[in-house]
Amino acid sequence: MSRTATATAAGSPAFKRINRAMVFGGFSTFALLYCVQPLMPLLAHQFALTPAQSSLVLSVSTAALALSLLFSSVVSDRIGRKPMMVAAMLGGAILTLACALAQNYSQLLVLRGLLGVVLGGMPAIAMAYLGEEIHGPSLGLSMGLYIGGSAFGGMIGRVLASLLSDVYSWRVALAAMGAAGLYAAWEFRRSLPASTNFRRGQRRGLDALVGGIRTHLADPGLPWLFALAFLLMGCFVSLYNYIGYRLLGAPFGLSQSAVGLLSALYLLGIFSSVWAGRLADRLGRRNVLWLVMAVMLAGLLLTLASSLVAIVLGMGLFTFGFFASHSVASSWVGRRAQAPQALASAIYLFFYYLGSSVLGSLVGVVWSAAGWAGVVALLGATLAASCAIALRLRGLAPLTPAALVPAI
Questions:
Q1: Are 338 and 215 in contact (CB under 8 A)?
Q2: Per-residue pLDDT tens for 199-220?
Q3: Which residue has the higher pLDDT, 334 or 228?
């Protein structure tokens, strides 16, 4: 049976239920993963850490998540999409509650590493579920809504963590996020319809993993999209990791809560991910991707200004462009990937979170050695390489209609 015959189109009740669930799923994943980002200066002070060391509280989670994604995709091909995602959300919430009780930094890093392993059962599986269940012309919108939920989760996680840590402590902040994660898991489970186009994988274990990786790396477009995931997410996380150190110090001297409120800029990401998804559905992903990356680069350069207003404007442009880029690139993976689709999404997100870990920690060293100008120079070069890849993808031959139907 063709996927198109049973795919869910925009406007149907099932489409609304799927998107409601995915908003909660994206919210929970990003809120639990990134709520520690604005707490890094506090943790550095309490545990006597350097900026690069404090960044490990995030990097260890994203590195573990990157590795977990590959194996969780294989597991989901055996047990199904929805059970895997529900378990990931529930486990992530419980581990975040446990993080609030950590007695030292080593314990916190171990728990955050486990959190990354558990959350590996959500992002790639969600992308695969949407790729299987949503009608092709509606996929950009649906993926954009999922990423919009991710942006909202990232914003709320950072803002609430900053405010609660200012009023109470970082432990209270993490406990509150864990409780929110439990509620999101409940809403996700009751809203998401069971898969209708899922087909259980025929290959098992390492054979499935290696064979699937070979299939996707042989595609002329997917490896370039995987590279973009590494570069773009590495830039995004790095900017938000270290802008707080700049704004907390002279000459700005902002409070922890004020720096945390910068995450309200994620609201732009909620809009841009949906807007870019619709635009890509209409104009084509190859014609939209490089433009929204150029917006990221312009925003980055604005952060070199000495004016706080200009810095905030630059961060807004950067955030707008990032979520738009991620929405277009991830939906392109969903459209190009043949079976096993979940593994294609997992490889994309493997590089996505690997970029977060590698560049997120590397830029900490650059910040200590060369200040903000050094950070912008490194991230600017990274974005220039990303734009070059996006322009190369404009010449990519489109898939034939037969290639859009998953093998059964």
A1: yes
A2: 665 545 566 677 778 888 888 7
A3: 228
Inter-CA distances, 283 with 15, 173, 381, Å: 23, 43, 28
- Identify the H or E element spanning 324: helix 308-336
- Model pLDDT, residue 403: 36
Ranges 15-29, 63-77, 360-374: which has the least confidence: 63-77
Report whether 197 contacts 133 (CB < 8 A): yes
pTM for the structure as a whole: 0.72
5 found inside a domain: no
End-to-end CA distance of the chain: 8
- Alpha-carbon distances of 321 from 66, 143, 291, 335, 375, rounded to whole Å: 23, 16, 9, 21, 18
Q: Which two tokens stand for residue 77?
A: 């091909």
Selection from 161, 24, 25 nearest residue 99 by Cα:
161
Domain of 225 in residue numbering reads as 11-189+204-402
Report the SS3 class of residue 157: helix
What is the spatial distance between Cα 236 and Cα 238, in angstroms, rounded to a whole number? Answer: 5
Domain harbouring 272, CATH code = 1.20.1250.20
Per DSSP, what are the bridge partners of residue 134? 8
Instruction: Evaluate whether residue 30 is within a structural domain.
Output: yes
Query: Is residue 1 situated within a structural domain?
Result: no
Domain tally for the chain? 1
Q: Where on the phi/psi map is residue 284: left (φ > 0), alpha (ψ -120 to 50), or beta?
A: left
Does 194 map to a domain? no
d(CA 334, CA 127) in angstroms, rounded, equals: 7
pLDDT of residue 335: 74
Task: State phi, psi for 306 to the nearest 5 degrees.
Answer: -90, -5
Q: Which residue has the higher pLDDT, 137 or 110?
A: 110
What pLDDT, in 10s, does the model give residues 267-286? 887 788 878 877 877 777 77
CA distance 358 to 352: 10
Tell me the average pLDDT across 351-377.
Answer: 88
Peptide bond into 340 cis (omega under 30): yes
Q: Is the pLDDT confidence value at 145 over 80?
A: no
Mean pLDDT of 77-105: 90
Query: In degrees, to the nearest 5, what angle opens at C-alpha 102 toward C-alphas 101 and 106?
Result: 175
**Inter-residue contact 73 to 346 (CB < 8 Å):** yes
